[in-house]
Each structure stands twice: as C-alpha cells, then as structure tokens.
C-alpha cells in the first residue's frame, strides 16, 4: 500500500479583506514553518489570492482557489479561469463545494467540466462530495455519493484523474459543529476508495487522497487522521484563525 501524503486545507470562504488575509497568512506561516510531513493549502477569497501568495510563496503553504469556471477566457462576467488561478499562484482549486451546489446552482455536470478544466490548467482539483441530512436519514448516502462521483468524474481516465483530491463533506456537518463519527467517516471514505478502485483501478485508488470536511477542529483531528482511509482535512471555520488552524496542522506534535 502506498503511503499517501496527508493534505490539510483551509477554506476561508467569503471571509477576510486583503489586509486581514495578509495578517492571517503571515501568522500562519510562522506557526507551521517546521511542518514537513504533510501538505498545507489555504484558499482565500479570489480578491486576496495575489496578496496572500506574496506572503506564502517561499513557504510550505500552498495556495488554492475556492472555485473556477471551465472556459479559459471570454465574456463570462464575474468568473475566473484555471489559467488565471495559476497566474495568481494557485496550486489547488476547490470544486463543487456544497455551498456552490446549494446557493449557486452547481450541478454534477458543471463540476465535471470544472474538474477537467482544472486538470488542463495544471491545478490539483479538490472535488467535494457529500449528502444532506435528509438524504442520510433516508439512507440514501451511498446512492447520492455514487451519482456525484459517477457524473462528476464522467469521461475522466485513470491518467487524467491522477492527483485529484476527493473531499467527503457531509452537508449536515459543515459549519454545524457536528462532526461525522469516526465510523461514519471511515465507512464513507472506504466506500469512496472502492468506487475509485472500480472506476480507475487499484493503483489510482490507493494513491488518491480522500480528505474529510465538516466541523474539523483541533479536538477531533487526531481521531479522524487515525482512520485508515482519511488522508487529511478540508477545514472551514477553524481555518480562519491561525492559532486554531495551526493546531490542526500540528495535530501530531
Ligand atoms: P467547516 O466547513 O469546517 O466550517 O464545517 C468545512 C467546509 O465547508 O469545507
């Protein structure tokens, strides 16, 4: 079995002006400068990408976009493209976050086009999937995930998928303080890895990082990271404060 290098990612969502983002980035790099055994990414709002990149460029913290459009350029008011994110210093891009699905009408088909465009631009997509509370209660978790994975990854081959990160984010755990239990999270992560195995083969499945998101905090990160199929975390609220986020990143110390 491959040892997958963990990824701890911070999604700042629609928080922080440029000066606030710069301060947060500066403080964060001070606190995580000696971490070398995992990958770290922060995704500030688009307006602060360049400012944050200037601060983190020579550190072990990478930059990520929170979203992108699939066209490279054109008359698409309000959108940013993959090549634009790359030029701003991004290495990653979050795709299909449940808030984008919920508030901005993103569909699995949109997400599929974005994943392909992200890969074409040389970005590492972090593709988010997850069920709502109603779907879980109705025991539809795996059928929902199956549809999101099948349609979101349509037409991708093992080669074109390689490197993509999957983020399991149960919608009922996002911003609610309710984390999935270790058993619930591990069950879904194992299911997702098995999906990847059937779809792309054992080697790709084994190498793919599947991260968990939904109320991750310093108090629950160790337990989550101890689970076999959890390869990191996508952190929202707790990534906004350098102190809290660095405690998550430093969970082993
Ligand atoms: P949360 O958000 O950590 O605030 O629950 C996670 C996410 O939406 O990525």
Total strand count, please? 8
Strand-and-helix sequence, N→C? EHEHEHEHHEHHHEHHEHEH
Lateral arrangement of strands in the main beta sheet: 1-2-3-4-5-6-7-8
Specify the biggest β-sheet.
8 strands, parallel, barrel
Overall residue-averaged pLDDT value:
97
Looking at how many chains there are and whether they match, the oligomeric state comes to: single chain
Q: Count of helices?
A: 12
How does the overall form come out from the CA principal axes?
globular
User: Which hetero compounds are present in the coordinates?
Assistant: 2-phosphoglycolic acid
Helix content: 40-55%
Residue windows where pLDDT falls under 50 for at least 5 positions: none
Beta-strand fraction estimate = 15-25%
How large is the radius of gyration? Answer: 17 Å
Which structural class do the helices and strands define? alpha/beta
How far apart lie the N and C ends? 25 Å
Protein traits:
single chain, 253 residues, alpha/beta, 12 helices, binds 2-phosphoglycolic acid
Topology diagram in text:
Elements: E1 7-11, H1 18-32, E2 39-43, H2 49-56, E3 61-65, H3 82-87, E4 90-95, H4 98-103, H5 108-121, E5 124-129, H6 133-137, H7 141-152, H8 158-161, E6 165-168, H9 182-200, H10 202-207, E7 210-213, H11 221-225, E8 232-235, H12 242-249
Parallel strand pairs: 1-2, 1-8, 2-3, 3-4, 4-5, 5-6, 6-7, 7-8
Helix pairs in contact: 1-2, 1-12, 5-7, 7-9
Bound molecules: 2-phosphoglycolic acid.
What do these coordinates show?
The chain has 253 residues and is α/β, with parallel strands linked by helices. The chain contains twelve helices and eight strands. The chain has an eight-stranded parallel barrel, surrounded by five helices. Helix 1 (18-32) runs parallel beside helix 2 and helix 7 (141-152) runs parallel beside helix 9. The protein is globular, with a radius of gyration of 17 Å. The two termini are 25 Å apart. The model has no long low-confidence stretch (mean pLDDT 97). The structure holds 2-phosphoglycolic acid. 2-phosphoglycolic acid binds at residues 11, 169, 174-175, 213-216, 234-238.
């Amino acid at each position: 079995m491959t040892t997958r290098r963990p990824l701890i990612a911070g999604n700042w969502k629609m928080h922080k002006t440029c000066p606030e983002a710069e301060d947060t980035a500066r403080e964060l790099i001070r606190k995580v400068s000696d971490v070398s055994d995992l990958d770290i990414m922060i995704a500030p709002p688009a307006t602060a990408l360049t400012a944050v990149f200037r601060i983190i460029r020579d550190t072990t913290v990478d930059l990520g976009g929170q979203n992108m459009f699939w066209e490279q350029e054109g008359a698409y008011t309000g959108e940013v493209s993959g090549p634009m994110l790359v030029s701003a210093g991004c290495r990653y891009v979050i795709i299909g976050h449940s808030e984008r699905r919920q508030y901005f009408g993103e569909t699995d088909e949109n997400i599929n086009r974005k994943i392909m465009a992200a890969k074409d631009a040389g970005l590492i997509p972090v593709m988010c999937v997850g069920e709502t509370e109603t779907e879980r209660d109705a025991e539809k978790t795996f059928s929902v995930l199956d549809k999101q994975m099948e349609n979101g990854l349509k037409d991708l081959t093992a080669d074109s998928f390689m490197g993509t990160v999957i983020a399991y984010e149960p919608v009922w755990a996002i911003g609610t303080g309710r984390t999935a239990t270790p058993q619930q999270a591990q069950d879904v992560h194992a299911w997702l890895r098995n999906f990847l195995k059937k779809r792309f083969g054992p080697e790709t499945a084994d190498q793919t990082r599947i991260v968990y998101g939904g109320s991750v905090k310093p108090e629950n990160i160790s337990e989550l990271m101890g689970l076999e199929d959890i390869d990191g975390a996508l952190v929202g609220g707790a990534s906004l404060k350098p102190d809290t986020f660095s405690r998550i990143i430093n969970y082993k110390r």
